[in-house]
Amino acid sequence: MVTYIFRRLVTAALILLGASYFVYLLTAASGDPLEEFRASNSPQKQQLMDARTELLQLDTPAPLRYFKWFGGAVQCLVPFANSCDLGKNIAGQPITEALGFALVQTLTLVTAATVLAILIGITLGIITALRQYSTLDYGVTFMAFLFFSLPIFWVAVLLKEFGAIGFNNFLRNPDVPLPAALGIGVVVGAITAVAAGGPMRRRLLAGGVAFAFVAAVLIYFSATEWFKAPGLGPVVIAIAGAGIAFAVTLLSAGLKNRKALQSALIAVGVGVVLYFLLQPLLNEATFVMIVLLAVAFVLIGMGIGYLVGGYDRGQSMRAAGITSFLVGVLILLDRYMQAWPSYFNNSRVRGRPIATIGASTPNIQGDFWVLGLDSFTHLILPTLALILISLASYTRFTRASMLEIMNMDYIRTARAKGLSERTVIMRHAFRNALIPIATIVAFDIGALIGGAVITETVFSVRGMGFLFLDGIAHTDPNPVMGVFICVAITAMVFNLIADLAYSALDPRVRVKA
Amino acid sequence: MAEDASRISAAAGIEPIIEAKGLSQGQIVRKRFLGHSGAIIGLVVFAFIFVLAFTSVGYLGIPGWWKYTHEEVSPLVNDGAPTLSLWPLAWGEHPFGQDRIGRDVFAMTMRGAQQSITIMIVIGLIAGLIGVVVGAISGYFRGWAEAVLMRLTDVIIIIPALLLAAVMAALAGRRDQGSWFASFASTNGVLALGIFLGLISWVSLARLMRGEFLSLREREFVDAARISGASNARIIFKHILPNAVGVLIVNVTLTMSAAILTETALSYLGVGVKAPDTSLGLLISQNQQAFATRPWLFWFPGMFIVLICLSINFIGDGLRDAFDPRQKKFNAKKAKDHGGPAVQASAGTGLDASAPGDPRHEGFRPGGPADGTQGP
Fold it and tell me: How many whole angstroms separate alpha carbon A212 and alpha carbon A229?
């Protein structure tokens, strides 16, 4: 095992060496960094050219300049020496500094998108695999192909137009006319009817209920101007919490496990009580406090599960813990919604909350909630675009993996020995289907850091992709190399992790020592 | 191969494949492909776009039937709005409208579609060729050839496509520098871009082909061929390659659909096809600011990208179902590894986990993140 890892790391280092040399030469060959001065006829033309030549060491030919750069870069490997030197970019800023800034921007942009795409994609993939060849399956498959074929810059421009400008116009005067409310209701109802499955009667019933609910809610929202001052309130949290309790119990323990259902419902009750108790505390919120509260909610839920007990304590604890966490999320959401009017009327936002460029409103001031909403409104469009694009491959992949597993003999055995369908799917099939998915998730997390070049360009986020593109545009090898090295190292490390994870998850696969 | 598989599986006690009776491999594949409605619709749509794009505005100097070219400026009709109407179906003077200075959007879109399709085919051919050669050599001969080629693949897979495209764009821009490549690239920008992208997009294909060759070279029919004195070249081309052709075709198709998105993305970023020539990505990039005033400048090129890419993806999906490489391999392996019906039950649980447990061979991720470019 250790030999294997060691060998992989050595190979990776050699590959990195070769590739980085190649990338350096390519960047240097891609243009002339002095071009803008050559064309100019300013009096200090020669001085400017000399200064840049000095800064970028242009008097050394590129194949040798690489080794100068390499000499600095190698020092990054010395731990705690703080002598990391990746050179300077064309503006004279050290690359290590620029990289640090870009990394934060990129990670805030892509992390949420990737996590959500993985969650939604896997869920959809499993559902479509269980309903193979149904209308739902065909619909989702078609959508997956469609999303897979969409150019992201096109989607992004469309989102900017309709998601930002259109939605902002709507928010200025939030009034859903009756036909629109009914139309949205019909669409949601139709989707529900298709997704519900089973006999036609059941589908129509589900679709009708969804239609009535959505239309009524929209009309109610429009009448009370909910969009101007949104909020959930304890009643909605209690009702939604009860729904969550049932759903979580259904998936994690099965509704037959009454103790688990009881503990989940008690957790919802406790959550609603906490909603009132926490309000003054939440006004002083900090990030650390939110994390601590999340941990506390999970622990409270698990405690409830433990006390209720039953024949299988673990299941009750799990159901109640998850439910309690989700209720906590609802409370958080409600608090964000309470901050909405003050954000909306902020002098910097001026009633156009959904932003199309950048990662935050310049010079905005406000408490934790307002700042949180600010980054949320900036992130929502790029996140949406990235989710749409990357959803497809997760869905298809999970579906293929799940279908493969569902045809295995041990699934037939599990059914034959009388296990419930829930147990068969959640315990026997789902967990095994996740094994191959774990590896691609590891790959994608490794690729996260490279950012999304096009998304960053369209939404003017100054992340890793922007740094890379900017370096290419100015024929400036140092930022290009900085980004490349970061991306390549993470990708390689995560590839290794993916391989090791595969052999850890699936004992039939052994790494070669 | 079909004969081979069905005979073995029948012997091993698996239900014989009924549709395979008396048909050759090619006939089975064709039958299955034609039965896949999505793939057929994709094929029809793609053929229609292909013919429309290449006949309407002309190609390689041959004039087309459409009255404008993508560079021609004509007076604005109806302020440049599209004259296409579906009911009653009328073509009009400028079916897709005109841009600000009066160029015909239909002609520009068709020209862009030509470019995208050209690049796609060039990339598919080059990537397929190199991928097969590298995969075949490293998978068949193993040893130092495999080590060298696979390390080369590892190096190339982490080099960002964006960078190569930028280098190419810079070279193509320097028409005066006089190297043969610069002059070639400046006159045939699209072809050069396709070749460049083809030279880096073969890596995933090579890895897949290597895997195929690694498993196929251990099969009995290869041993049989070798014993009867077949040369290495004959074994590779006559015995192994025909059995790996399914995986190859499916993944070339998927590489091609990814290639279209890569090309449009690079053109969008300004390092792909350059003005005065045009491409679908470039059209969108040039016109995105005009979305509020002239949305048709934006809709039509985008729609064509989506249509081309979608139809190619559907064709690829149909081909995958038709060849169904995993299913075939799985049956054959079962029969081979565990010769008799007695052990079939345990064989099904996937003792050989590399074959059944890895739907990555589905190849829905033909390399590169979802963002469209490979990199950085």
Answer: 24
Interhelix angle B203-216/B105-141, rounded to 10 degrees, is: 40
pLDDT of res. A293: 92
Residues B227-281: pLDDT tens digits?
Answer: 999 999 999 988 898 888 888 888 888 888 888 888 888 888 877 777 677 888 8
Contact A408 B349 (CB under 8 A): yes
Question: Of all helices (H) and strands (E), which one includes residue A485?
Answer: helix A477-505
Mean pLDDT for chain A overall: 84
CB A264 within 8 A of CB A323: yes
Do B104 and B72 touch, CB atoms closer than 8 A?
Answer: yes
φ, ψ of residue B23 to 5 degrees: the values are -115, 150
The tokens for A411 are 């699934």
Chain B nearest-CA distance from A89, in A, is 17
Burial (CB < 10 A; 0-12, 13-18, 19+), residue A438, is: middle
Say if residues B376 and B163 touch (Cβ distance below 8 Å). yes
Among B347, B244, B332, B367, which residue's Cα sits nearest to residue B4?
B332
DSSP state of B290: G
From the CA of A148, how many Å to the nearest CA of chain B?
A: 8
Q: Is B40 helix (H, G, I), strand (E, B) or coil?
A: helix
CA distances from A307 to A191, A250, A296, A300, A311 (A): 40, 20, 16, 11, 12
- Which of B149, B150, B152, B163 is the best substitution to test chain A (most A C-beta atoms within 10 A)? B163
Contact B360 A440 (CB under 8 A): yes
Residue of chain B with shortest Cα separation from A28: B167
Question: CB–CB of A297/A327 below 8 Å?
Answer: yes
**What is the mean predicted confidence (pLDDT) over A304-323?**
87
Contacts of B317 in chain A (CB under 8 A): 145
Considering the entire predicted model, what is its pTM? 0.82
Which of B46, B149, B158, B324 has the most A C-beta neighbours within 10 Å, making it the best mutation to test the interface with A? B158
Q: Which amino acid is at A478?
A: N
Residue B284 and residue A154: Cβ atoms within 8 Å?
Answer: yes
Q: List helix spans (H) across A309-452.
A: 313-344, 368-406, 409-416, 421-423, 430-448
Enumerate the residues of chain A whose CB falls inside 8 A of the CB of residue B155.
Answer: 15, 18-19, 22
Let me know: does A128 contact A141? Beta carbons within 8 Å: yes
3-state secondary structure A57-126: CCCCCHHHHHHHHHHHHHHHHCCCCCCCCCCECCCCCEHHHHHHHHHHHHHHHHHHHHHHHHHHHHHHHH
Q: Could you give the percent of chain A with pLDDT greater than 90? A: 17
Tell me which chain A residues have a C-beta less than 8 angstroms from the C-beta of B159.
19, 22-23, 26
Residues A469, A472, A478, A481, CA torsion sign = positive
